[in-house]
């Protein structure tokens, strides 16, 4: 009796272990999720870039895609650094609204004009609580670019939190750019907002002329 | 014996004067830099930013940056644009490969210096394959054989030894650097076999052509990126500084974290 019980126990334990193993194997890891997310996001971006649309049409198509997949607000807060704490609610709103346009303009400038852009996904490695997805972006007649996408699951769904292009982290470079500008303008956030407005207006001018 | 040792260790009268002059110039240079140094700010947040930028000679560096950008605008940039317009991409790519292969000995010596034998082996194999099968380096055959290019220079080697970068420097017409990387550049010039080509050889002409073409080719590769940076950044100087410092750190980390076994894959 004792032997039969223990045998049943052992069988039960083995079955439970097999079930748990199966569930663990079936459940995708955060690395797999991050890879799948960047693959889908990348395919959508490349489809727009390689289409025959005009640059301003591509820019309009990028906007909703970036809003859905990139946590632009969070990146913007990081880029403003310590000045975010001292900014008024009205300045914060204005800054974020301008920052969204800055991001879209920057992406449009970097890849908008090309046709035949392709990308390959490499390793996925943990980066703190986030996942870092390595990609190589090939643009025709240009050197290939190694870009690493930092994907966070903090909001419940995958979002791009930063991009590391050939070493420099976009948010750190931009934060240093803004910090240097602000230190030369006595920390005036309004001066920064005016400068960003001028940049956005200058960028939109040729697009409107199309 | 003492006399021999003394003659090696102590400078003779004829060499003492240039050394003294060199020391005087070095002293004057340091004094000039010290005169340009910005005192650290008092505010803790501003102090943290000041330390992160690591740029105490910012006023002098900005002048050098402005000077370089003005010179670039009227010299190297138009030349690079004309080069891109006149030379087909495949040819430019081949010339880029040639420049990269010719620099492979410097990468090799630095890999050895950094104690990364696998990387040194990769650089050596790249040099051998590309010089023979790659027609003197014009075709990067090694990349397709599983030996892609990796960066290394004496500044990075010193960094892997734990030598701190020292303050940021913007060198006129040479771009962003630091005290350590500037010294590293001097070491790299000494490590390049092409600088030991005897006078009177045709190779000397090749060396000049190689250096000039390498500069134009390198500038052409960054035409779009630099133009865009100038257009989008609020302070392009600070953006370049940050990008450079981050890139050097990333390159140092890549060398430090390369723990691949020394034995190539084909022995496994």
TrEMBL record, chain A:
Keyword Transcription regulation assigned: no
Keywords (A to Z) from UniProt: Signal
InterPro entries per UniProt: MlaC/ttg2D, TAT_signal, Tgt2/MlaC_sf
Family matches, as Gene3D superfamilies: Tgt2/MlaC (3.10.450.710)
Pfam families in alphabetical order: MlaC
Record field: transmembrane: none
Keyword Hydrolase appears in the UniProt entry: no
Signal peptide: 1-28
Protein name (database record): Toluene transporter auxiliary component Ttg2D
Naturally occurring in which organism (per UniProt): Gluconacetobacter sacchari DSM 12717
From TrEMBL, chain B:
Coiled coil: none
Keyword Transmembrane helix: no
Any one of the GO CC terms: membrane
Keywords associated with the record: Lipoprotein, Signal
UniProt-listed GO biological process terms: intermembrane phospholipid transfer
InterPro entries found in the cross-reference section: MlaA
Protein family according to the UniProt entry: Belongs to the MlaA family.
Name recorded for this polypeptide: VacJ family lipoprotein
UniProt organism field: Gluconacetobacter sacchari
